[in-house]
Design the sequence.
């Protein structure tokens, strides 16, 4: 038990050092971790994620061209699983958690999602709340929105990064044409 507490503390300290080196304000970290874009300066790259990546960039409400409803549930599925958008389009994803356990909707490249999921696995047991423009964490029966601009053509992935959910198939894609 003593070693588990020490290992968890080392993970938190290591994450804090990495985050500080990347310009994160870690003052919000108490019993868990919180990514909060509002305190970041310059071009944010939270926990190794470049928000101006192949996945696109944060959207602006006045530029939203349409809203797409996405539901997630305890069958470890998103509905719809595949979405088509036009290059340059800003989408408001209206996300609803129809499940009985917390779920997430996280947009990114496949490698970004896998990297972040690995970090989440290492920090399992700690409460980690996401509040970045490309992701939302939702409690059961809650809903919220994510605004995202799809800058480049290609495929952008989305997944639930709650440990075990992505591995159980809770993934989807946005095809940008």
Sequence:
């Amino acid at each position: 038990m003593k070693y588990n507490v020490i290992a968890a503390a080392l993970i938190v300290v290591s994450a804090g050092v990495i985050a500080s080196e990347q310009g994160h304000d870690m003052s919000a970290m108490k019993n868990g971790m919180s990514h909060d874009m509002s305190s970041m300066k310059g071009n944010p790259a939270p926990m190794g994620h470049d928000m101006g990546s192949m996945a696109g960039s944060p959207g602006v409400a006045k530029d939203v061209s349409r809203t797409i409803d996405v539901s997630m549930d305890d069958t470890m599925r998103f509905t719809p699983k595949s979405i088509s958008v036009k290059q340059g389009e800003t989408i408001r994803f209206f996300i609803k958690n129809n499940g009985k356990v917390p779920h997430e909707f996280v947009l990114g490249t496949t490698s970004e999602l896998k990297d972040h999921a690995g970090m989440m696995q290492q920090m399992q047991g700690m409460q980690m709340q996401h509040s970045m423009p490309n992701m939302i964490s939702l409690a059961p029966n809650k809903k919220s929105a994510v605004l995202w601009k799809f800058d480049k053509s290609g495929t952008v992935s989305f997944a639930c990064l709650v440990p075990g959910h992505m591995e159980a198939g809770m993934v989807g894609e946005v095809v940008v044409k």
User: Anything to note?
Assistant: DSSP finds two helices and twelve strands in the chain. Residues 2-21 form the longest helix (20 residues). Residues 1-52 have pLDDT under 50 and may be disordered.
